[in-house]
């Protein structure tokens, strides 16, 4: 299985390079997060926007298997202490609301829904693809609600086709605008939704199910 043999279309419509993208750190090692009111989405958004602006970039990126400190902002992730879900399973691309999102390869719409709730995905689309003779699913979270209008399960989507747009808060799950992009080999019965984070106890299992999204994104920054 050689992912490099596939010519994936850039999910954001352009390659994510060292010239337009900066890696963002939302792990506990980032001391700046300690003084940031993460529950205040406007303040959180200002922080993210400033990080991108300070690096003269268009996008912020990161997160695959990152141990994150930012999930304390929402009870969506609160479980028993030993199973607190704070390991990120996708890659986040932080940018302005309204930024277009494209399908990286041919597929069809598997499912979609509005995952409502503070800290959730908001509008979400899952595509089903066939790659190397096996099924592969790609998830796009935190979209515009209007992107769910007029689409249908089973609808074919071509590589490079405009799929959706990065949604604004609060309708995107009340996050600073970004795309949550995730790959799954098995949806485990989910429709329009899939865990975007897991507990440290579950990491080894989810690493098998959720390959590194940068296999498709191919960002130079990661």
Automatic annotation (TrEMBL):
Native species: Algoriphagus aquimarinus
Gene3D superfamilies linked to this entry: Glucose Permease (Domain IIA)
Segments forming domain M23ase beta-sheet core: 87-185
Pfam family, one: Peptidase_M23
Signal peptide (UniProt feature, chain positions): none
Coiled coil regions, renumbered to chain: none
InterPro entries associated with the record: Cell_wall_metabolism_enzyme, Dup_hybrid_motif, M23ase_b-sheet_dom
Name of the featured protein: Peptidase family M23
Molecular-function GO term, any one: metalloendopeptidase activity
